[in-house]
Specification:
Blueprint lengths: L5 E9 L4 H8 L4 H6 L5 E8 L6 E8 L2 H10 L1 H12 L2 E10 L3
Antiparallel strand pairs: 1-3, 1-4, 2-3
Length: 103
Amino acid sequence: MTGHPYTSVWEYEVRPGAEAEFIILHGGEGSWVRLFRRAPGYLRTELYRDRDRPTRFLTIDHWETVAAFRDFRERFASEFEALDRTGELLTLRETPLGTFRPA
């Protein structure tokens, strides 16, 4: 259903030595958040770093609805792809853990 809040969770294994750059890219004032903020329906992004494995991170992106996220992806496709390519240089692996809504 597209009317529910939409949360997307990703796991990243960052290249050793690239952690600071990754945090800048994905953090609260980073390039991803600045792009997301241009889209209606974006709520917030949370970035978490694993306490035991400092190269492992989670991002949690919150949107008002699935439709808001889909509209963002369509409207900002080229900017999204460019940022994604930049991020790929900093990571060894990125894994989508799923999309969620409140229970």
